[in-house]
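User: Here's a chain of 145 residues. Predict its fold as tokens.
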Amino acid sequence: MSLKDDEMLMLYNYDYLLNRAIEKLPRRRDTKAYDIPQLEIEYEGEHTVVKNLNLVSERLRRDPRVVMRFLLKELGAPGALRPDNNMVIYKRISEKSVQDLYARFLENYVKCSTCKSYDTELVREGKKWYIRCLACGAITYVRPV
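Assistant: Prediction complete.
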């Protein structure tokens, strides 16, 4: 056997190919559900204020405006993002209603439908939106927010 034959065997060795494939996989960070903070809700008169929207959206790797748009659209209420990144809803909404909608946002726009990881990113390509899982690499198309 010549040196070329040994190199060819090395190239097609199962263990070598398997290790090479594993090295190319994205590193799994394992974001668990308990790493995701709940929304902190406060009331200012007839307004509902989400105090930690900036922290939540940072942990979820989502734009705060996307989270806000989903919540306001589902609540059917007007609202805005303040300069300090607190979200104000111009209506008094029960904390349970807001938390339930937040849980639905997590399920539909954050959680990977394949491996159930929360380590994802929301990507927008033109009119199409999809979730790309950073743990398993799966892509799931979702309705635009």
